[in-house]
Specification:
heterotrimer; A alpha+beta; B mainly alpha; C alpha/beta; A: alpha+beta; 3-methyladenine DNA Glycosylase II, Chain A, domain 3; 2 domains; two-stranded antiparallel sheet; 11 helices; about 35% helix; elongated; B: mainly alpha; two-stranded antiparallel ribbon; 3 strands; about 60% helix; globular
């Protein structure tokens, strides 16, 4: 019988000593942390996607607290949680946030298998970046989608998939959180984060080809040839033409859909509009985001990327 | 252009080596051992090996097909056949079929497929199966038939193996017991009790030479294990003659089979020559320690599994010599 | 016999054209001169549409120090100064010339007479470098680094020997082999010029011993040129890699990137470059043509062709028997490091050493199997890297891991992928990792 008691005593003693050590250590080495960081962290989505630009949700929480101490939460946005989460964060920190229009990833290439002939077949790792090293990918287009799905792999929310029929990525707008991972990953900068627009409606030029019209036309039937018809048609001066490529400024666009009709190549797409009635709908006046896109910067970045290949 | 050219990144040629070539190459290297086991154990050897190979291949197929839903089946790559052969060679020839099937299930199911199949397992699957059987069925797994009973299977007469004799000598400290050992020449040929693949050192060495010639493996692992065992057991023998002498140690038990075929398993051994030598020294030392001081007469399986666990660590700390980098 | 120490593989040699004497290729009807024929800044066009040019007329001048001028290799009129799709697959600036006749600029010496250093005792080191720079010579082995830059050691460094690359370790290619056989004296004079340019007394010419005729011919004639030693080397790929060749011949190891051969006192040049330097300095002939091996198992008549730069690849294939039915892949360069072409209108450039056609079966990669951790890639890597680790970590975007494991040292020789039993596309992934890490390093340096 006493054997058991010895065991119990020894184990109990070991437990006690360990507890004592742990207690002392926890006191001695305790790290002072602003309790609000934990609180903020709790309302964040915990996807740790890095879409906010900070390493994970706790990093973002720390940055939010720091920003609040500095006096303003401007520029802090969790793209996954969006406005509701930022409002909760602000209420914890006793601040207010300004409204930011929700964004969504938009694929700006319509070079489907039908529109853009494959001129060679690529045999290698299924990665856009590897395909890019062999040349222009499977098609002759020096700007369009490579179709290997680096964006799909980069998406933490399963919001992008490659449509097997077109070979192009499709964004599931329900799932897309506009974290920007795909836009960052795409070696050809085809994916752009654009304001979702009212009822999700928006106008997009689905091409990024900056070659001259004849060249662009030769490689893809759905390419923007830089003819400028849309620019002339647009009543709101929302479309600019730069480097043989039209770009619709979402801030200025009033969704009148005139450019869509004007484009001879069908390179301008109206997304999430109801099917057209025989007579064109009246233009919908839309409240617009406060954060304009920066097409010029985007383009120079993209062009330098292509040249470096 | 009517026909599309293929583009890919260089290199555009391949050396022609393949997983199959390596796996079946090891199987070919095991043929002398297979013949030796059939010569010494006859029917029993045939039943044990056939059961082991067939059930390993079956479990590989069934698990990847029904549990993992893999599209690309890996049963043709030869790795399951090899696991089955190695497992069989590690079993006594009078082991009942149902125990072998359990061993194969553990080897393939637990040892390999739970980790994701070929290339992902941290431990040698055949040894996982063998050690599982050894601790679960210690009696059946440690009574070895004497060689030469060609037509008997479960009813074969059993007898002491050289390792058991050596262990007895260590325990009693009585060196005269060692005289019961077969002479070195018999041990080289395989005229002794033991598991199927353990008995004939000569057959294993032929297989080793074949694998080295075809560059399936490099010399680092087998040579470092055997040298370590030789030196370490030699020192122990000099210290106390009751400890087995190095030649007997080398030729008895699963040491050669393990050193040549089990420790050299690609998946579970280190990647750099220096790492492989460290791994080999570790296996050799642990084997001798277990054989001399441990409870079991044989320590090869445990030694390899223990060093398997160290393989990632060895890989991390043993980088190849980089070109142009001066040692710090 | 000497060879490099770490790694290496033995691809099937397939030197189909080793016995085929070189011959001039037909002059094309139209020649296309890409402005991107070298590493560094692209050349700047100096001609315009309608200009009449002769062979040797300057078409584009060097833009900066690390750049090279481009000369017309044909006579005719400039039809366009535009962009064409070049070997990169992208449209880049180029000059297109419609060919009429074959008139040469008068100051080019077209005779076959050998001019040795003894005939031109007045040549100084500076003269040679200036002439090389003027002639637009770039590394002819395929690296296309402007040669005058390599002949001008950076301040504070001094070369003590020149290593000449006559290894031609790529399977199939035989252009350097034929050059050493057919233009032995010219190559040797070229080597003497390189020695004089970098002011050293010693040159080693590394030749793999699968070319015994070239070794014998070079050895026989080299005795007449002081300081040139022919070093036969054991056949092993990638011995033609600069770093491997330096180690094989001198035993020295170039420090890891951004280390350069000059840091261990070596200047490496290709035999093709040596020949071009001879022609530039002694014959006043700019770089307008080069030898190129047009080869491949499906091709009817593989050949070594003296080709005018700017000739479309398609014309070369036609000259060697036409595009075979079962051709699956066309490679610019050799099979280990060459680039698969998307488009056969691509012109021959200064660095085009070969054109290789592969049949359908050879062109396809085999099915990928799981990595069995056999470590054969580790044994094959000539830089002492761990390709399996770099490839896997790159695929999982562990950029810190690949950087810590020296991914930037990778020379992309392809030995790992060549040797992999599981046919894993290791080098594809390693390239992604390497380019990412190099971009990260550049960004870090820019921050500092």
């Amino acid at each position: 019988m006493h054997l058991i008691w010895i065991a119990v005593l020894i184990l109990g003693a070991v437990g006690l000593i360990s507890a004592l050590v742990l207690f002392v250590a926890s006191r001695k080495f305790a790290v002072e942390e602003d309790p609000r960081i934990g609180e903020v962290s709790e309302v964040l989505p915990q996807a740790n996607c890095g879409g906010c630009g900070y390493p994970g949700c706790s990093g973002f929480a720390g940055a939010c607290v720091k920003a609040a101490n500095a006096g303003s939460l401007d520029g802090m946005l969790c793209p996954v949680g969006g406005q509701p989460v930022m409002e909760r964060v602000a209420s914890i920190l006793g601040m207010s946030v300004t409204a930011v229009a929700p964004k969504v990833a938009v694929v700006r290439c319509n070079g489907s298998c039908a529109n853009r002939p494959r001129v060679v077949s690529y045999d290698g790792v299924k990665s856009c970046r590897a395909a890019l090293m062999t040349g222009t990918g499977e098609t002759a287009c020096a700007f369009g989608c490579l179709g290997c799905g680096d964006c799909v792999a980069s998406c933490q929310f399963g919001a992008i998939s490659i449509n097997p029929e077109t070979g192009l990525p499709v964004v599931d707008e329900e799932k897309c959180t506009a974290c920007g991972a795909c836009a960052k990953t795409c070696p050809r900068k085809i994916i752009e984060l654009r304001p979702k627009g009212p009822k999700g409606r928006r106008m997009v030029v689905t091409c990024v080809n900056r070659d001259k019209g004849a060249v662009a036309n030769k490689v893809c039937q759905a390419s923007c040839i830089g003819c400028g018809k849309c620019v002339k048609t647009c009543p709101f001066e929302a479309i600019t033409l730069m480097n043989n490529l039209a770009y619709i400024d979402p801030e200025k666009c009033r969704l009148c859909r005139k450019c869509e009709e004007a484009c001879p190549k069908g390179a301008i797409h109206a997304i999430n509009f109801p099917p057209r009635k025989p007579k064109a709908e009246p233009a919908v006046a839309a409240p617009v985001s406060e954060k304009p896109e920066q097409p010029a910067a985007e383009k120079t970045a993209a062009s330098s990327n292509v040249e470096s290949n | 252009m009517a026909k599309k050219l293929i583009v890919s990144l260089s290199p555009h040629v391949h050396g022609g080596d393949s997983v199959q070539r390596n796996m079946y190459g090891v199987c070919v290297a095991l043929i002398p051992t297979l013949l030796a086991s059939l010569i010494f154990f006859g029917l029993g050897a045939a039943i044990v090996l056939a059961t082991s190979v067939l059930s390993c291949v079956f479990f590989e197929w069934a698990i990847s097909r029904f549990l993992l839903h893999k599209e690309q089946l890996t049963i043709t790559d030869g790795s399951a056949v090899l696991t089955g052969l190695l497992l069989g060679f590690n079993l006594p020839s009078n082991l009942p079929v149902w125990i072998i099937i359990i061993g194969a299930l553990v080897a393939i199911g637990v040892g390999k497929m739970t980790f994701g199949g070929l290339g992902c397992n941290p431990f040698n699957p055949a040894l996982v199966g063998r050690v599982f059987l050894l601790v679960s069925f210690p009696v059946q797994m440690t009574t070895w038939p004497l060689p030469g009973q060609l037509t008997s299977y479960l009813d074969a007469q059993t007898g002491a193996t050289p390792l058991a004799v050596m262990k007895e000598a260590v325990k009693t400290g009585d060196t005269s017991v060692l005289e019961k050992l077969p002479n070195a020449f018999d041990m080289l040929l395989g005229q002794m009790g033991g598991s199927l693949g353990e008995v004939s050192a000569l057959a294993i060495l032929i297989g080793l030479v074949y694998m080295l010639m075809r560059k399936i493996i490099t010399w680092h692992i087998p040579v470092s294990i055997l040298l370590t065992v030789l030196v370490f057991s030699g020192l122990l023998h000099l210290y106390n003659p009751a400890y087995a002498d190095p030649v007997n140690t080398l030729l008895s038990g699963g040491l050669l089979l393990g050193a040549c075929f089990m420790a050299t398993d690609y998946v579970t051994s280190p990647m750099t020559p220096r790492g492989q030598i460290i791994y080999g020294i570790g296996i050799g030392a642990i084997t001798v320690i277990i054989r001399t001081f441990g409870a079991y007469p044989e320590g090869m399986s445990f030694a390899i599994l223990i060093m398997n666990a160290f393989t990632p660590l060895i890989n991390t700390y043993n980088k190849p010599k980089r070109y142009g980098r001066v040692a710090k | 016999m000497k060879t490099f120490k770490i790694g290496g593989v033995h691809p099937a040699e397939n030197k189909l054209t080793a016995e085929v004497p070189s011959r001039p290729a037909a002059i094309p009807a139209q020649a296309v001169f890409s402005m991107y024929q070298h590493i560094g800044s692209p050349a700047k066009p100096v001609v315009k549409k309608g200009d009449v040019v002769k062979v040797g007329t300057l078409l584009a001048e060097a833009d900066g120090f690390v750049s090279a001028p481009i000369y017309s290799s044909v006579s005719g009129t400039v039809s366009k100064v535009d962009a064409i799709v070049d070997a990169s697959g992208y449209r880049r600036p180029a000059i297109i010339v419609d060919v009429q006749g074959d008139e040469w600029e008068e100051e080019i010496d077209r005779s076959a007479d050998l001019v040795t250093l003894a005939d031109r005792p007045e040549l100084t080191s500076e003269d040679i470098v200036a002439q090389v720079k003027k002639a637009g010579i770039v590394g002819m082995g395929g690296a296309t680094f402007p040669t005058h830059v390599k002949l001008t050691p950076p301040p504070g460094s001094k070369a003590d020997c020149v290593v000449i690359n006559g290894v031609e370790c790529e399977p199939y290619l035989t252009a350097d082999h034929r050059l050493m056989l057919e233009k032995t004296d010219e190559v040797l004079v070229g080597i003497s010029l390189i020695m004089k340019a970098v002011k050293v007394e010693k040159a080693y010419v590394g030749i793999e011993n699968n070319k015994p005729d070239a070794i014998a011919r070079m050895q026989e004639k080299a005795s007449r040129y002081p300081g040139i030693e022919i070093v036969p080397l054991k056949v092993k790929y990638p011995q033609g890699g600069e770093k491997q060749l330096i180690q094989a011949i001198t035993g020295r190891e170039v420090p890891p990137p951004p280390g350069l051969p000059i840091q261990v006192g070596v200047v490496v040049q290709n035999v093709g470059t040596a020949f071009a330097i001879y022609e530039a300095v002694m014959k006043n002939k700019p770089l307008v043509e080069r030898m190129i091996t047009v080869t491949g198992k499906p091709l009817a008549r593989p050949a070594n062709l003296w080709t005018r730069i700017g000739t479309p690849m398609k014309a070369l294939i036609d000259e060697c028997g036409g595009m075979p039915e079962d051709c699956g892949k066309v490679i610019g360069g050799g099979p280990m490091m060459g680039k698969a072409l998307m488009n056969l209108d691509v012109p021959v450039c200064k660095g085009s050493s070969g054109l290789l056609l592969m049949n359908d079966k050879e062109s396809r990669r085999a099915a990928i199997q799981p990595c069995i951790r056999c470590a054969k890639c580790v044994g094959a890597c000539p830089m002492g890297l761990e390709p399996y680790l770099l490839a896997t970590a790159s695929a999982f975007k562990k950029w810190d891991v690949v950087e810590a494991n020296d991914i930037v040292s990778c020379i992309e020789c392809g030995s790992c992928q060549f040797t992999c039993p599981s046919n894993r596309p290791m080098l594809d992934n390693i390239r992604i990792g390497k380019s990412t890490v190099m971009a990260l390093i550049r960004a870090r340096n820019a921050k500092k």
